[in-house]
């Protein structure tokens, strides 16, 4: 991606809360890198404040958060809100264990995409690209 | 051993206790099993992991499992408790009682084991960073019930090294954490002879994506590291090694797993005797608990996970495990419902009583494939030990510290995890229901939901305790702890026990230690 | 995707009032290159050259991230407003990258340091072409010092040197082979050496080897000021004060001995040089893209023909 018009998409990847399962997050980081994106990998135990600061300084195009342990219903909307409050129109994609019955709630909370445990590398890259394009400049 | 009892197949054919030439089970290096009679003499412990909501909620589940035939207790704590934080900590919001039971003070521990005779039951506690604190609470509860600590039977996971490598539930940096682990080992060696102070774990390493050989090698290396640490603290190896226990994963590749278990016993026996000078045969015998692979269970068509668990349980038993937890089929979606937990327990009971496997020790011993696999697992593990020894200039403990610091362990595991993911992605590796045979099973199954009121209940209780306790005693106890923590020669268990008795919270005790030990921040290696 | 002047102007205005998001956006415009980057360069050119630029490089595993993080945190908690540009290599196959330096600088970030992660984006030199422009953005908006942190493999050290006032090279006791260091030109560009993991065996040997190599290079008169060597154990916090002090001492030296203008003009020349390299390499790529093999002509003669045409010369030297 050397051409100026096609600079790589920059994604901040993180986990909110105390949960320490980062296997999926690391795999997604590699998938996005292999899809030509630049991943600012924040990893475990991040707060919404840290992620917002990262988005501002890194001028990220998207935020990816990984959820297990049923945290998505509280933490995902909080992430969306934190970005809004900071005046950042940046899409949030949620990955991990989200039961089908909660998908509507996620959409309503403003989450741009949800990736389940069976998501392939193509699914992941496509979801991020589409989320970014929809918000696009 | 009951020599009069004859073991027969379902059709009535009498069978011997072991077959084949070569070393027998119960004979060094114990490749075929640590006891001569194995399951003929005693079945493995059916130890089902449980914990959610408040201590009262979990107490009910504990009693259900014991009534249903479970033979040991195993406690799952919530994320805040695992990370050494109280329910009223800002990081605990939304997490109280969700991934396990919430324990903030001694009062919660008392409720957790209400009406359960600690002198009779064997309890496992799955906790690492704050493990010493939970053990202190358990000892204090037993004391209240009039049970002497020397009678207490159980296991504390307390395996901090694997946290830096895989599970990431660490609090303090590696070296002070290993000191705390050694303190528990010394304390139990002297005062709780029936207690296993560490459950050296490979389960989490495997769940994080490692290969079978890595699970085997990293776990045993951590074991060697703890041996070296305890020896450095002045203990004689035979004083504590008999009580070191292990915890392995039982994954889907049937024969690889069996080879892994057999290799584990052989390696441990040889290293303890030849490298660490252990003379007591109990030090040579590797005892382990097994859990079927949570990560192999799918959210798609969850009922078929029952088949996966059964096969993995079988591998664990043929592999000679001393204790087994079988996962519930809804593992990939939520904490287990009562029904799902019951089915998982019944799975073990079917293996134990209907398959005839328990009549013969190491039934696959002598199979060309299984013997080759055992040798191969050992060979791969020895290569990893060699690398760690180099990293540590001859010491496995130092090598493990270096491997943690420079991200070697997490890098190896992440590489293996990624390779696996690519295989599944490309279709080279088929997972039923995920990338093959995907029709069916779309009905929503009932999932356990944690009552949202749990958090409020716990918070209220915590606040009441903080108001009613004697804050001067708490302050004094915490000060004593911080002081003693600065001196590596002092065993911290007595001070921790005193602190829990005056109702210092887990979080307060952790903070007192953190002020001396520091906090661990992982350098992210991706 | 034309960026209007007005966007740049409004971002610059907000950035000068302290809006970090706008600084982040300006950095992106510079990184992408093109017309917008030129506009930003025009604006920032006159506002910069106030900050001290520190380049920190070293082999993977030497511990430069830990050192950079503690330096940045230290500076941020005292009266400074530091910025860190953490450069990691892009995958040559996919063009993507995993940037893992930021997470090691959480404390520095919380203390107020501005952290920006950068990928090399396929530049053969190993250091992103846009670094000088991004440094100027930080400089223009009051960030000082500016730390460029990058993995030193091959050409990179030299590139870093051309972008920084003070060049720090981090080695460990495992380093050993002083000849390698010489080959990579490290000795010519390093203003300060840090021997990290000083608690390990071999650390004092590494120091001694370095001293010897420096002695040799001094004989040939290659350096103006003898580079200092500092021993640290970054993970334990040992030696960090000495490290910081050594950096500031170098800065003093630059300003007092009027070396700063010498360095800055070197930096400027180097930047022009690398931009020229880039422009020419683009032209070269274009020239050979649709080229067809000519029977009987050697590659050398074909190349000479093309060069003559491009340069509008009859003869090449």
Explain what you see.
The complex is a heterotrimer of chains A (137), B (526) and C (317). With 137 residues, chain A is α/β, with parallel strands linked by helices. Helices cover 42% and strands 22% of the residues of chain A. In chain A, strands 2-1-3-4-5 form a five-stranded parallel β-sheet, with helices on both faces. In chain A, strand 1, helix 1 and strand 2 form a beta-alpha-beta unit. The two termini of chain A are 19 Å apart. In chain A, 62% of the residues are buried. Chain B has a single domain, classed as Methylmalonyl-CoA mutase (TIM Barrel, Alpha-Beta Barrel), CATH 3.20.20.240. A nine-stranded parallel β-sheet of chain B has the order 5-4-3-2-1-9-8-7-6. The relative contact order of chain B is 0.14. The model of chain B has no long low-confidence stretch (mean pLDDT 93). In chain C, helix 1 packs across helix 2 and helix 2 crosses helix 3. In chain C, strand 7, helix 10 and strand 8 form a beta-alpha-beta unit. Chain C starts with a helix and ends in a 6-residue tail after the last helix. Chain C is globular and about 65 Å long. Chains in contact: A-B, A-C, B-C. At the A-B interface, helix 1 and strand 2 of A face helix 2 and helix 16 of B.
Outline the secondary-structure elements.
The complex is a heterotrimer of chains A (137), B (526) and C (317).
Chain A: E1 10-16, H1 23-34, E2 38-46, H2 48-58, E3 62-67, H3 72-85, E4 92-96, H4 103-108, E5 113-115, H5 121-135
Parallel strand pairs in A: 1-2, 1-3, 3-4, 4-5
Helix pairs in contact in A: 2-3
Chain B: E1 45-50, H1 55-67, E2 72-76, H2 79-82, H3 106-112, E3 122-126, H4 131-144, E4 153-156, H5 161-167, H6 174-191, E5 195-196, E6 198-201, H7 203-207, H8 212-232, H9 237-240, E7 244-250, H10 254-275, H11 281-284, E8 287-292, H12 305-318, E9 323-325, H13 338-354, H14 368-391, H15 396-405, H16 408-426, H17 453-468, H18 471-485, H19 493-501, H20 506-517
Parallel strand pairs in B: 1-2, 1-9, 2-3, 3-4, 4-5, 6-7, 7-8, 8-9
Helix pairs in contact in B: 1-3, 4-19, 8-10, 8-14, 8-15, 10-12, 10-14, 12-13, 14-15, 18-19, 18-20
Chain C: H1 5-16, H2 20-32, H3 35-45, E1 53-58, H4 64-77, E2 83-88, E3 97-99, H5 106-110, E4 114-119, H6 131-140, E5 146-151, H7 156-163, E6 166-172, H8 178-183, H9 186-189, E7 192-196, H10 203-219, E8 228-231, H11 240-256, H12 259-289, H13 299-311
Parallel strand pairs in C: 1-5, 1-6, 2-4, 2-5, 6-7, 7-8
